[in-house]
Amino acid sequence: MTMKTEVAELLVRLGVPASQIDTGTLKVTTPLTGEEIGSVKKATVEDVNAQIETAHAAFLQWRLVPAPRRGELVRLLGEELRKAKDDLGRLVSIEVGKIPSEGLGEVQEMIDICDFAVGLSRQLYGLTIASERPGHKMTEVWHPLGVTGVISAFNFPVAVWSWNTALALVCGNSVVWKPSEKTPLTALACTAIMDRAVERFADAPAGLHQLALADRVGGAALVESPRVPLISATGSTAMGRQVGPRVAERFGRSILELGGNNAGIVSEQADLDITLRAVVFSAVGTTGQRCTSMRRLLAHDTVYDEFVAKVKKAYATVTVGNPLASNSLVGPLIDKFAYEQMQKALADARALGATVTGGERVLEDEYPDAYYVRPALVEMPEQTGPMLEETFAPILYAVRYTNLADALDTHNAVGAGLSSAIFTLNMRESEQFLGAAGSDCGIANVNIGTSGAEIGGAFGGEKETGGGRESGSDSWKGYMRRATNTINYSTELPLAQGVSFDF
Ligand code: UN1
C-alpha cells in the first residue's frame, strides 16, 4: 500500500468527507519519504472573511450557553479523540514525521487538555471584592470574548489547536483555525472529530468551529479582522513580529507562543545519568523541532568533558530513520529548507571555531526527497553566532562555565525565553535558578529536560517568545474578558474616595 492510499484510508476512518480528500491544489507531502500524500483546497480571503462572520454569529449564541454545558461539548470532543487516538497519532506521524510514540503522545496531550477544560467549565471563577462604601458590593466576572483566531505551527499540528480550542469553547468563544500549510491533513482530521462532537451535542450553533486552510494572505485576513478579538498564534518569532503589531494596531488581543532557545545547565553536582537521558530526549527528540527543544548546554568545567563524551556516545548510537519503517528514535526534518537552515547554522558555528560532531545528512540514497540528519553536538568556544538564535533542527551547542552566576548570565543572554532546565542535586543552586534572579523563561525545570511539558501548567515564555500563555493554570483568562461590577443596594449614593457632590 502506498503512503497516499494509507493516508486516504486514515482520513476516511477519521471521518473526513471524501469531497475534501485529494481535491485541491495545495499539495501535501510526507517528510518521511518526500512523496505526495494528498492535496487540499486552499481557502481564499473571501472564504476566511465569510468564516469569521459565521463564527461571530455562532459566538453570539454560544456565549449564552452556560459554561458547564459548554464543557459538555469539550467532554464529547475528548471522547471522540480517545476513539480516534490511534488513527490520528498515525496521521501525525505521517504528516510531520514523528515517531509513533510521539504521534500518540501528541493526541494524548489533546485528550488531557479536554479533561482539563471540562473541569474548568465549572471553575471560571470571578471575585467578590470588599467595597469601601456601605451597602455596596463589588464583583469581578469573566465573560466570553468572541471569535478566537488560532494560528498553529507544523511541529505540533494537533495539540496546539486543542489547547486553544478546548479553552476557547468552554470560555464561550467560537474558533477559526488556520493551521500550518505543511499540515492540512491532520487539521482536516481534527475538524472532522470536532464536527462529530458537535453533532452529538444538541445545541451547538452552526459554525462554532471552522477550519481555514489558508496561506499567509488568508491568515492576514484573520489577523486583521476587527471581528476577531483574540489571535492565539504559535510559531516562529518572525511570524510573531508580523502578527503581534497587526493585532495590536486594531487593539485586538494576542497570545503569542513563539521561538525558544532553551538551555540546560549541568552543574558539577548533577546526576549525570538522568541528565544524559533528559538532555538527549530534549535535544534530539522530535528531531529538535519542538519549540521547547534543548538547543544550548551549559556544563560546569569539572563535568564538561565527562558529560559531553557521554552525549557524543549517545548521539553516535541514537537511531535515525523512517520511524514507520524501523524503530528509529529520530525521524526526518520537515523539509529541505529546514535542512538547509541546519547546515547554514553549522557552517556559521564552524567559522566561529566550533567543533561539530554529527549533523550530516543520512539515508539520502534511500530517500532522496526526505531529509534525515544525524543530530549535531556543537562545542562552541563561547556563546556567540548561531548559538544565540533558534534553528529548528537537532543542534545542541555546548559551552563551559565555572560559576553559576556567570552561567545564569549566559543562560539569559539570548532573545528567546521559553523553557529552561538546571541539573543539580544542590538545593541552593536549583533555588537560585528558579528564583527572581535566575532563569528568565516561562518554564524553568529542575532535573528534567526543557521539553515535554504537561498541560496542567501555563505554557509559554518571555521576551522574543512573545509573553503569551496557553494550556493549563489560569491561561483561560486570556480567552475571556473581565468586568468589574459595583452594585449599590443601599438608599444612599456615597461616592468613592469620600468625594462629595451635593446639588
Ligand atoms: C511546541 O513545540 O510548540 O512541552 C509545543 C512540550 C510539548 C509542547 C510543545 N508539550 O514539548
From TrEMBL:
EC number: 1.2.1.3
Coiled-coil residue windows: none
PROSITE patterns, per the entry: ALDEHYDE_DEHYDR_GLU
GO molecular function: aldehyde dehydrogenase (NAD+) activity
Entry keyword annotation includes NAD: yes
Top-rank EC class of the record's enzyme: oxidoreductase
Keywords: NAD, Oxidoreductase
Pfam family, one: Aldedh
Gene3D superfamilies in alphabetical order: Aldehyde Dehydrogenase, Chain A, domain 1, Aldehyde Dehydrogenase, Chain A, domain 2
Active site: E257
InterPro entries for the chain: Ald_DH/histidinol_DH, Ald_DH_C, Ald_DH_CS_GLU, Ald_DH_N, Aldehyde_DH_dom, ALDH7A1-like
Domain Aldehyde dehydrogenase: 24-482
Family: Belongs to the aldehyde dehydrogenase family.
Subunit relationships: Homotetramer.
Name the record gives this protein: aldehyde dehydrogenase (NAD(+))
Source organism: Woeseia oceani
Phylogenetic classification of the source organism: Bacteria, Pseudomonadati, Pseudomonadota, Gammaproteobacteria, Woeseiales
